[in-house]
Specification:
The protein is an alpha/beta fold and 303 residues long. It has helices spanning 38-48, 61-73, 110-119, 143-153, 164-168, 182-189, 196-209, 247-262, 265-280, 288-295, and strands spanning 2-6, 10-16, 30-36, 53-59, 77-78, 81-82, 88-94, 98-101, 128-132, 157-161, 177-178, 213-217, 223-227, 231-234, 300-302. Helix 1 packs across helix 8 (247-262), helix 6 packs across helix 7 (196-209) and helix 8 packs antiparallel against helix 9.
Length: 303
């Protein structure tokens, strides 16, 4: 089983305005509402790949009810901890430029954190747990490290899609897969990375530090997967980028979901790249048919 963890879920409110005028009344051209949060995105894409998962985390209020109801309609299983306060709303405003206004989210008490840990008792040896997104400031800043260490001690495969110190601190506990983009990778080592060739030595460094598999995404310029024994470099399918939100989460879902089914790292990476691109070319998270259509464009070089 695959479990995804979203500590601070949201409603992603997508608003399009033809010509935004600050300080004036603007009329929406189009709007959409989706359940948001990186782990939730992973669960939604896994479901579209016919791979079951359970979404974990914290939700509250009428916004939390919306998140749970949409997941239920999509047949995505969830087991959230109910908290006081409303789950946040993140506004994605698209006009001449794309602007994001992200909510803070509810405060999470120690009692609710204990309830979350109790829910992890359902995870069994050999299962996968995806930790995705930022850690809210009302939770321990080392929570991902605690959970990655717990996974290592219990034979559970931990996947981490985070950035900064939260990502660097988990590496020594041998997570199964981590996925920084090239900007996040550069931040980890205080360097500027602009090409896959520049990224490979730093990806290998993360493997030496303990990560089992390191995926590094370069948006429209490709991706690279580094394992203990090999380096896989991928191109990116061609298409019009409509929505960058969730592309990285879709890559994670495509990779983990396919690896669970095939036990092939290279096949998993190929489907992951196609999944990320398919979401970038869609208004919402991608559908399975679009992933399959793009797969033939993905070329992997093994080094």
């Amino acid at each position: 089983m695959i479990y995804t963890v979203t500590l601070n879920p949201s409603i992603d409110y997508i608003v399009e305005v033809d010509d935004l005028q600050l300080g004036k009344i603007n009329r929406m051209k189009r709007e959409n509402k989706f359940p948001g949060g990186k782990g939730i995105n992973v669960s939604r894409v896994l479901n579209r790949l016919d791979v079951k998962s359970v979404a974990l985390g914290f939700v509250g209020g009428f916004t939390g009810d919306f998140i749970k109801s949409v997941l239920e309609k999509e047949n995505v299983s969830s087991d959230f901890v109910q908290v006081q306060g409303d789950s946040r709303i993140n506004i994605k405003l698209k006009s001449q430029l794309e602007t994001e206004i992200n909510g803070q989210g509810p405060s999470i008490s120690e009692e609710k954190l204990t309830q979350f840990f109790d829910k992890l008792n359902q995870v069994e040896k050999g299962d996968y747990v995806v930790l995705a997104g930022n850690i809210p400031n009302t939770l321990p800043l080392d929570l991902y490290e605690i959970l990655t260490k717990w996974g290592k001690e219990n034979g559970i495969h931990i996947v981490v899609d985070a950035s900064g110190k939260a990502l660097l601190d988990v590496v020594k506990h041998q997570p199964f897969f981590i996925k920084p983009n090239h900007h996040e990778l550069g931040d980890l080592f205080d360097v500027k990375i602009t090409s896959i060739e520049q990224a490979i030595p730093y990806g290998k460094k993360l493997v030496e530090m303990g990560a089992q598999n390191v995926g590094i995404s370069f948006a429209g310029d490709g991706a690279v997967l580094i394992t203990e024994s090999s380096v896989y470099v991928s191109n990116v399918p061609k298409g019009e980028v409509i929505n960058s939100v969730g592309a990285g989460d879709s890559l994670v879902a495509g990779f983990i979901g396919t690896y669970v089914l095939t036990n092939s790292i290279e096949t998993a990476f190929k489907v992951g790249v196609a999944s990320g691109s398919a979401t970038a070319f869609s208004e919402d998270l991608t559908k399975k048919e679009k992933i399959e259509k793009l797969l033939e464009q993905v070329k992997i070089e093994k080094g």
